[in-house]
Amino acid sequence: MITDIKIRRAVVCLLCIGILCLSVCFLFSPKKDFSENENRYLTRFPGLSLESVLSGEYTKSLNDWVADHFPQRDFFVGLKSAAEIAGGRRSINGIYVAREDYLIEPYGSPRNTERIIDTLAGFYEKIDKSRVDVNLMLVPTAVTVYSDRLPANAPRSEQMETAYTIYDETGIPAVDCTERLLDGASQGQLYYRTDHHWTTFGAYQGYLAYCDVKGLIPVALESLTAQTVTGEFAGTLYSKINDYSHKKDAITVYSNPEDVLTVTYIDTGEVTESLYNFAYLEEKDKYSLFLNNIHPLIEIENAAAATQEELMLIKDSYANSMVPFLTHHYRKIYVFDTRYYRDGPSSFLTDHEGITDILLLYNMNTLDGDTGIRGIY
Length: 377
Fold this sequence. Notes:
Blueprint: H1 4-28, E1 34-35, E2 40-41, H2 50-55, H3 57-68, H4 73-86, E3 91-92, E4 95-97, E5 103-104, H5 113-126, E6 133-139, H6 142-145, H7 159-170, H8 178-184, H9 200-214, E7 225-233, H10 236-241, E8 249-255, E9 261-265, E10 270-272, E11 297-302, E12 310-315, H11 323-326, E13 332-336, H12 345-351, E14 355-363, H13 364-367
Parallel strand pairs: 6-14, 12-13, 12-14
Antiparallel strand pairs: 1-2, 3-4, 4-5, 7-8, 9-10, 9-11, 11-13
Helix pairs in contact: 5-7, 8-9
C-alpha cells in the first residue's frame, strides 16, 4: 500500500538525485568564456582574498559565476523568457516585445544633450565652410518610426524633439530622414526585428534623404544587385531578451555593378574590393559584415564614381550599411569611427584638401552615450 510517507520519501529521493545529477553536470561540463546567444562575456571564477570575502564581493561573484555556467543555461533562460511572453509580459530586460515579432529598444531620457551640442557646434565652427559642405544626420530608431507596433501604454518617444534641438543649436545643416523612413514603412522592412540597427532598405531611405539635401540623383534600388546573405541574424535585442525561439532576421546586401572599389583598412593595412566581409556570417554578430566590423579609419576609392568629390564620413555603425549607396557619388570616402581614431578628423581634413563634403551620422538611441562624439576634433 502506498502511503503519504512513501510518496514523500520518493519525492525527496528524486529531488536529491536531480540535484546530484545537476551538480555532477556542473562540475564536469566545459565552461565557456563567451555566450553567443547573449553576446557577452560570462563571469569568470572569482579570485579568493580576505578583502573580497569580508566585503561580500567574493560571494556575489561566485553566485554570478554559478548562474552564468549553470548546465543548459541557455535552455532555461530561453524557457523563462518564453513563459513570460506567453503570460502577456511585453517588456523584458528593458526591451519591448512589440507587434509583428519586433523587439524594440526604448528611448531613455537624454543626459548629455548640451555636451553633444557643444562638441558638434565647436567642430562645425572650426570648419572652413567656403571649402567644405557639412551635414548632420540624426537617425530615429524603431521606437519612433514603428511606434504603432509598440505595446499599449508604452510612453511616446521624444527622440526627434531632442534631434531637432541639436540641429537648431549646433547650426549644422540637417539631413532629417524621418519623413523618408515613415514613407518607406509601407514599402519594406526598415529595422531588424532582433537588432537595434536599420536594415539596408532603411539605410537606403537615409541615403535618399541625403540625396534630397545634397541635390544628388540617387541610384535606383532596382539597378543594384541585391543578395540575401543570411536568414539567421539574431541581433543585440535578441541577446538582451533571451527568447531563443524568436523569429530571426534576413540580411540583404546591395552592390553597384558599375562600381570599381578599392577598400583600405588603415589600421590593418588590408586592401579589398568589397565593402563586405562575409566571414562574419559564421558568427553571432552578423551585422559586422558591413565594412568588416570596427576600424578607426577606412578609405574607400571608387574609380568609376560619378564625380571627383571626396566625403569625410564621421559615424556610428548605422552608417556602415549606408556606405554602399554613397560610393556612386564620391571618388573617395574616408570613414571614421572616432571612438578609436586618435588623431582627430579635424587635422585629417587639413591634410586632405580634396575633401569636399562632411557627413556626421549617428542614430538617436546610442548618441547620448557615444564616446565617439568627443573624438571628432
